[in-house]
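Long-time lurker, first post. I've been practising inverse folding by hand and with some scripts of my own, and I keep getting stuck on stretches where the structure tokens seem ambiguous. Below is the full token string for one chain I'm working on. Before anyone asks, I'm not after the true native sequence, just a reasonable design that respects the backbone. If someone could post their per-position residues I'd love to compare against what I wrote down in my notebook.
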């Protein structure tokens, strides 16, 4: 083994019979593809997304959503990039342990002096550590239950196209910089009611949520349109807002599809000039 990479091969925990059953990094779903002449079924591959908890010497540090592949590399790279250790030699062991609901724990054991420095660092931080899922440090928080969608809003395919088409002309900062995400709210009969931009897609959605609350708009009455892919965090935020229909430029993750379907949210992705794909709630979108 190279002296530059003196870490034992990762071992799977034997604490459960699923010790070796990590989720596949991608999977197939069936969608409804709309291209102007009605809907047609389509099979599509989507990336998997799973909560990954990182612990150091059995102390929880952070939870992130990640593709369940190359997890030893992820554990090593994260630990080095966050300057928790200076060299791989300060990592004594990495254990990959499957957890309930497809989650994974990356358990690292680091040198005592590095753990002491990490404890000191955590005690002196005034906020979140700048990594992980909005400061969460447990898998339970990452997969908290979501409220069911109460709206039965029904829209036409033309409504979806109009909602998405309204977004780009209103992205004034993105047109100047080509470096910003946008989240907008479109309502039938009113058009694009509000739009917020930010370098982070989560930040753009949070800004929109605050704006809609101050405007007195009900997110369940229209369409949330976004310029990004759809991860589980966006589904979680949209559900808390009361969003009924979410439309995005890019595709969702498998976990986002499962969660949207479980709460009754219409999830549409790959929305472009020539059409879109319905991933959940297709009965509420009329061709």
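-- Answer (accepted) --
I ran through it position by position. Result:
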């Amino acid at each position: 083994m190279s002296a530059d990479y003196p870490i034992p091969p990762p071992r799977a925990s034997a604490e459960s019979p699923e010790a070796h059953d990590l989720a596949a990094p991608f999977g197939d779903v069936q969608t409804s593809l709309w291209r102007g002449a009605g809907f047609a079924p389509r099979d599509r591959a989507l990336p998997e997304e799973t909560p990954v908890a990182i612990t150091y010497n059995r102390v929880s540090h952070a939870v992130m959503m990640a593709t369940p592949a190359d997890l030893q590399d992820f554990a090593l790279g994260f630990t080095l990039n966050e300057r928790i250790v200076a060299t791989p030699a300060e990592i004594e062991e990495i254990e990959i342990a499957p957890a309930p609901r497809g989650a994974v724990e990356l358990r690292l054991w680091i040198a005592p002096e590095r753990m002491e420095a990490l404890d000191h660092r955590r005690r002196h931080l005034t906020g979140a550590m700048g990594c992980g899922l909005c400061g969460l440090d447990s898998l339970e928080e990452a997969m908290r239950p979501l409220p069911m969608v109460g709206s039965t809003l029904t829209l036409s395919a033309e409504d979806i196209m109009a909602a998405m088409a309204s977004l780009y002309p209103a992205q004034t900062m993105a047109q100047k910089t080509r470096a910003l995400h946008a989240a907008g709210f479109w309502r039938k009969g009113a058009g694009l009611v509000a739009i917020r931009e930010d370098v982070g897609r989560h930040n753009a959605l949070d800004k929109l949520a605050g704006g809609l609350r101050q405007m007195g708009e009900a997110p369940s009455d229209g369409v949330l349109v976004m310029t990004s892919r759809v991860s589980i965090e966006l589904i979680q935020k949209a559900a808390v807002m009361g969003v009924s229909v979410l439309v995005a430029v890019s595709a969702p993750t498998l976990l986002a599809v499962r969660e949207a379907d479980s709460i009754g949210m219409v999830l549409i992705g790959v929305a472009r000039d020539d059409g879109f794909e319905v991933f959940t709630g297709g009965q509420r979108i009329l061709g």
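A couple of notes from the structure itself: Residues 1-5, 13-20, 126-132 have pLDDT under 50 and may be disordered. The CA atoms of residues 57 and 109 lie 5 Å apart. Happy to go over any region you disagree with.
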